[in-house]
C-alpha cells in the first residue's frame, strides 16, 4: 500500500475545505444577487403600474371637468332664440293686464298700481288728482259713458263678454281755459308738463289754451292729437293676461 506523506494529505484536506467554502460563498452570493434583482426589478413595474393608473384616472376627471366647463359656458350664454325680456323701467303689470309705457315717458313717468287700476303720474308733479291718465277694468263688454271734452275715455280694450279695460284722461288745456271747471286750478307749468306727456310732445299746451280762450271754447281741434297719441302708444299696447 502506498503511503501518503502527512504533509501532502494535510494540503489535500485544506484544498477540499477551501473548495467547499468557495462553493458555499457562491451559492449565498447568487441567492443575494437573485434576491436583489427581484427586489429592485419589481419596483419599476410597481411605479409604472401606479403611473398608468394615475393617467387612466386623470383622463375621466379631465373629461368631466371639460364637460362641466362647457355646460357652464352654455348656461352663461343666452340662447339666440330667447326673446328679450320687457324693459323693467317701462313695463307695468296690473292684476289682469300689462303694458310697456312709451319710450317718451322714460324717467319722466311713474305708475301707481292698485289691483286692476293703474294711475300714471308725472314724476315732476306726482299728483293722484291730476294724472297723465287712469287705466281701469270696468263691467260690460264695452264702455257705456265716454265722458266729456274735459275728461273722457280715450280708448278701451276688450277682455271678456262681461268686462273691458278703459283708459281715461283729462284734457288740461280745456280745464285751464274753463273758469267754471270743478277741478282745482293748477299752475301752467304743471299743465304744460302733463299735456306734453299725454301727447308725446305733439301738443303745445299754451297754444291750445290760448285758442280755446280766444274762441270761447269752440276751437277744440288742437286737442285731438292727445287722443291719437295715447291711443297709438298706450291703449293699443295693453295686453290682457
TrEMBL record:
Residue spans of biased composition, Low complexity class: 50-84
Source taxon at top rank: Bacteria
Positions of the UniProt region annotated as Disordered: 50-88
Name of this protein: Secreted protein
Organism: Bifidobacterium dentium JCVIHMP022
Classification of source organism: Bacteria, Bacillati, Actinomycetota, Actinomycetes, Bifidobacteriales
Amino acid at each position: 500500500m502506498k503511503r501518503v506523506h502527512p504533509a501532502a494529505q494535510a494540503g489535500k484536506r485544506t484544498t477540499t475545505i477551501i473548495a467547499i467554502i468557495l462553493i458555499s460563498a457562491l451559492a449565498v452570493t447568487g441567492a443575494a444577487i437573485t434576491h436583489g434583482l427581484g427586489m429592485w426589478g419589481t419596483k419599476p413595474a410597481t411605479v409604472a403600474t401606479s403611473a398608468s393608473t394615475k393617467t387612466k384616472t386623470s383622463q375621466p376627471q379631465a373629461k368631466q371637468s371639460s364637460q362641466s366647463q362647457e355646460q357652464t359656458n352654455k348656461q352663461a350664454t343666452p340662447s339666440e332664440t330667447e326673446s328679450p325680456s320687457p324693459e323693467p323701467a317701462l313695463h307695468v303689470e296690473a292684476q289682469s293686464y300689462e303694458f310697456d309705457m312709451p319710450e317718451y315717458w322714460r324717467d319722466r313717468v311713474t305708475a301707481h298700481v292698485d289691483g286692476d287700476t293703474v294711475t300714471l303720474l308725472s314724476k315732476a308733479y306726482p299728483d293722484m288728482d291730476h294724472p297723465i291718465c287712469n287705466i281701469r277694468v270696468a263691467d260690460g263688454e264695452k264702455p257705456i259713458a265716454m265722458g266729456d271734452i274735459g275728461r273722457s275715455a280715450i280708448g278701451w280694450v276688450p277682455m271678456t263678454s262681461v268686462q273691458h279695460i278703459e283708459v281715461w284722461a283729462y284734457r288740461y288745456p280745456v280745464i285751464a281755459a274753463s273758469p267754471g271747471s270743478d277741478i282745482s286750478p293748477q299752475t301752467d307749468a304743471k299743465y304744460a308738463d302733463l299735456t306734453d306727456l299725454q301727447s308725446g310732445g305733439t301738443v303745445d299746451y299754451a297754444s291750445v289754451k290760448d285758442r280755446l280762450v280766444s274762441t270761447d271754447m269752440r276751437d277744440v281741434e288742437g286737442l285731438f292729437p292727445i287722443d291719437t297719441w295715447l291711443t297709438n302708444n298706450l291703449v293699443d299696447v295693453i295686453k290682457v293676461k
